Structure formats: structure tokens, C-alpha cells
Amino acid sequence: MKYNQDGEIESDIQTNIAENREILKPFIFEYQDSEYIIITFRRDEWENSSATVFLDTEIYTFDELNMIESHSLDTGYWDDSYTNHLKNISTIKKIFINGQQNFLIGCKMLEGYPIAYSSQITYDLLRFVYYNNELELSEIIENSGYKIYNLPENNEIATIDIYKDAYAENGGLNYHEEKEYRLKKISFQSSTQVNEIFSVSGNYSYAWGAGTLFYTYFDMPSNFKILNL
């Protein structure tokens, strides 16, 4: 739906979404004096007992929602015993690099063994170049992209990354988690340079039994935010 500033609906569009697709995150932007919207989807394609997970990135005109460009990326797969794929999208930003419009998409990645109650969560940064209504994947920057901040300098961003390692024991009665937040500066020049500024980390665990839940914390970070640049 599109609303005016008085809160009244100006127009609305209805469409069907395939059962194997999930809308992850939209993003509105301007390009050559026109408005567009990016919509990202997670798409699971099944073959036997395994599913390949795709990230579909599509660009639509803002007024009519006509799709003008699309891109699909194979992010991994999952089955009953192992998973290594895109979980969801954390953020989308636009930045001009060398005079071209780029889109930075932060992807939450999940890897683990469900049977063994073990998993790791990381974040990858996808950099797309958008030129003449064409969307091209330029590079994948691993371990970045939980949050993205544009820096005043040209062709630079600050990014926050999260790494989480979790596992359970004793049939899930004992749970352990380690988490690390990292602040990085990324410069897009002739080659991309990633510099880590600092990080904070910690862990916690819990166990339950006989109706009692026990928590143990060791400097567990819960959030990380840039206050100024």
C-alpha cells in the first residue's frame, strides 16, 4: 500500500507469493530522478530431502511495482542433518562507489548440525553494482554486515559483525553460547580493504532440571551500537 502524508491510502497492489518464497526485506531508493524499491526473498528449492536456499533480489518501479531487474544467488542448502545457508537479511544500504550506485546487503548466515544441537551464525556483506537498470553482484565480504553505517569519507563504510557459536548437551538440558561483536572499517578503492577496529566478546550458559533454571554469564555482550563516527 502507498499512503499520503495524511495517512490515506493512495494505491495498493496485491500479488501472490509462491509457497517456497519468503519476503525478507524491502528498500526504497531514488535513481535518475525516479523511485524504485528493492525486495529480497529467500527461496527454498527442494530436491528429494534437501533444499537449496536462494537469495532473490528484485527491483521494482515504486508506483506500479513492475519488476525491471532480478538477481538470484545460491547461498547453500539444508537437510535434516546439516544446514549451511542464508537465514535472513539484516540491513540494506546504498553507497556511491567510483561514481556508480552500489547496494550493500547484510546477510545472516546459519551453519550447523541440528541433530547435534550445534550451530554458528555469521554475517556476510553482498555488494551489488546497479547501472543502467542492471544489477550485478560485485563481491562477497565475509564476516561483515550485521549493521552498516555510511562514513563521511568517499567510498567507505563502518560495519558491525556478529559471530555466535551455540551448542547444547544432555538432550538440550545444557546450553552454551559464545558471542562476539566486531567493528570494522571497509574502504572500496581499487581493491576492497577491511580493517578491524576492535571487538567485544563473552559467553553464557544455562542448565535446567527438576523445574529449576540456572544461568551463568561471563561478560555476555547483548548489543553494540555506534554513537558517533
Notable traits:
single chain; 229 residues; mainly beta; 13-stranded antiparallel β-sheet; two-stranded antiparallel ribbon; 15 strands; 71% strand; globular
3D architecture notes:
- With 229 residues, the chain is mainly β.
- It is 0% helix and 71% strand.
- It contains no helices and 15 strands.
- The chain has strands at 2-3, 9-11, 21-31, 34-47, 50-61, 67-78, 83-97, 100-113, 118-131, 134-141, 147-150, 156-169, 174-188, 192-209, 212-218.
- The strands form 2 sheets. Strands 3, 4, 5, 6, 7, 8, 9, 10, 11, 12, 13, 14 and 15 form a 13-stranded antiparallel β-sheet that branches. Strands 1-2 form a two-stranded antiparallel sheet.
- Strand 12 and strand 13 form a beta hairpin.
- The radius of gyration is 20 Å and the shape is globular.
- The two termini are 36 Å apart.
Distance between the termini: 36 Å
Rough outline: globular
Q: Total number of β-strand segments?
A: 15
In sequence order, what are the helices and strands, one letter per element? EEEEEEEEEEEEEEE
Work out the radius of gyration: 20 Å
> What's the tally of helices?
0
Poorly predicted parts: none
Mean pLDDT, as a whole number?
90
Largest sheet: 13 strands, antiparallel
Would you summarize the structure shown here?
The chain has 229 residues and is mainly beta. Helix content is 0%, strand content 71%.
Q: Topology, pairings included?
A:
Elements: E1 2-3, E2 9-11, E3 21-31, E4 34-47, E5 50-61, E6 67-78, E7 83-97, E8 100-113, E9 118-131, E10 134-141, E11 147-150, E12 156-169, E13 174-188, E14 192-209, E15 212-218
Antiparallel strand pairs: 1-2, 3-4, 4-5, 5-6, 6-7, 7-8, 8-9, 9-10, 9-12, 11-12, 12-13, 13-14, 14-15
